[in-house]
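Methods — Computational structure assignment.
A single polypeptide chain was analysed. Its primary sequence is given first, followed by the predicted tertiary structure written as structure tokens.
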Amino acid sequence: MGVDPSAPAIRLVAGLGNPEPRYARTRHNAGQRVVELLAERLGAGRFVSRYGGRFAEARGPAGPVALLVPSTFMNASGEAVGPAAGTLRAAPEQVLVIHDEVDLPFGAVRGKPGGGAGGHNGVRSVMRGLGTGEFPRIRLGVGRPPDDFRGDGADWVLMRFTEPPEEVEAMIARAADMAEAALAEGIEAAVNRYHASPPGERARARRARRAQEDGEPAGAEPPAGGEGPA
């Protein structure tokens, strides 16, 4: 992975979540877990209490980077991210925010350079703290509750994952991979890299759709000389 000197250097990475051990493994704390893993990978120093959160510094692929896990509750995340960015003199486009996203299916990891809050109260608070929505994000899909779920959206994200732990860990690791790519090359390059379909995935999806239309098994292989990897 190369370093793109033309991309805005990310100076601060913030992983959103709620404080207190009882929230540590909930869906809403997925972003916090990514930053903790990123700290391990980058060999960050010990987290200390600063800017209303747990703060550490490390050497990223493109230079020094600060890591922040707000100790505020989710809805007040901007009260930690805003002061940290201000003290570090990090412009909004240099602040990478990592958070859970109910509008993405479980396991999906997606990035974007900016936008609205999309109903996420933590992101809305960060927008207030930075004065804009034009900051890069990495979103981890936690899915929506099933139809028979007894509770509302807040109840859902404050629950622990019910999916297999190894699948949760794999999603956290993919998000950390994407964060490292964003640190090295910028969010746009990271999006291009990690949103691309694996080799052959589109061809397999087309074959599956045709097989369903023809009433054939979805996993049937094409005849010799048929469609190869996309």
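Note: Residues 198-230 form one domain.
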